[in-house]
Amino acid sequence: MKKSIQAIRGMNDIIPTLTTIWQHIEGVLRQVLETYGYQEIRLPLLEKTDLFSRSIGEVTDIVEKEMFTFMDRNGDSLTLRPEGTAGCVRAGIENGLFYNQIQRLWYIGPMFRHERPQQGRYRQFHQIGAEAYGLAGPDIDAEMILMTARFWQKLGLNDLELQINSLGSADARVAYREQLVNYFSEQMNRLDADSQRRLHTNPLRILDSKNPEMQGLIEAAPQLLEHLDEESQEHFVALKQLLDQTNITYRVNPRLVRGLDYYNRTVFEWVTQQLGAQGTVCAGGRYDTLVEQLGGKRPTPAMGFAMGIERLVLLLSQNELPIPNNAPHAYLIMMGNEAVQQGFRLAESLRDTLPQLRLLTHCGGGSLKNQFKRADKSGAKIAIVLGENEIASRQVTLKYLRDNQAQTLIAQSELANYLKSLEFGNEVIGN
Ligand code: HAM
After folding, report:
1. What pLDDT is stored for residue 431 in this prediction?
2. What is the pTM of this model?
């Protein structure tokens, strides 16, 4: 026997038992995004490699070791997108979306990073992200944070902690970076190999180290927040005021630096304790210089975030949060050829009259027992049976599959009205 082909490590199938929860999350988030006035943008999965190295940064983990990069047939270096922000900026410039305009955009889709797979961390994962362009003030930062808070509220997630920080301006960061290099250089022998490597390439990332032996050193390091330029300081104060005004609880985490280079000023993360090391569910911040850096003609301030859908799915499943049931309402059983002819007509007319009805028609014939078995397995609440007797009397038999109600006969012409009057859980299928 030939060995079957397996999926690529870290790339998962999302099978029908899971798509219900995915669709629920996507539906809730889409609805919230729309109510805040964000518009969907759809972007290619493949981009030129330069786009990511120039935006995310040459000396980040993503660009150094996690990208799926390959040469195409023309010898161009292409990369499967590891995130959505760079492509969004590229598309905005290319399509003239930023020219004297405010844009509030969102996207959903797969991203690719060659990380070591474990629970909550995959090589193909999915993000829902939002980006706003042309707004420099802290108001848009607050709006985005409030919108994410509303996601959690609508999904029933209540253990997420909001952490915020400010990275200041690019200039203030250069000065701070120097201080940090001086501080860590004096402690060279206490740095782990990773941090020694980062000392001169990306010293801010040392602050993000998860190595417990480094924590004392990191805690005593000079803090970025104490070296902010005045404007960034005011921006941060104003953001905190807006969050206070709207009753959003947050923690200022001075060591929150993020793993991508394009950020300045506000950065934030929503973190849970329930997913171990992969606890960041949603993350983002400002990136006011990226548009120009990638060739935009005018300064275009920007702010955005993205969240990992797999992590949300894990959280919702672990907490057994209610998700809508999309099992069929009814299953149509048909005995014999004449019943199939009539049954198909009946099913289509039910679908015309009751557009919300989830009706499974039995296909493949077979005994009554067998058809009932399939009906039961489908999760449907009722079976509609059409056999010889029913055909003769222009009726159907209704059998309740989930509760002890007695079966009834009902006229075919009354069926739509009858189904309309039923309650399926909290769902009513009329109108
Ligand atoms: P990020 O922090 O790299 O930021 O990713 C955002 C979120 O995507 C993470 O918080 C996590 O939930 C999810 N995620 C990242 N990597 C994986 C993975 N390997 N497996 C599963 N989930 C993962 C960005 O991507 C920025 N583009 C966010 C942003 C948008 N900033 C401004 N605008």
Report:
1. 57
2. 0.92
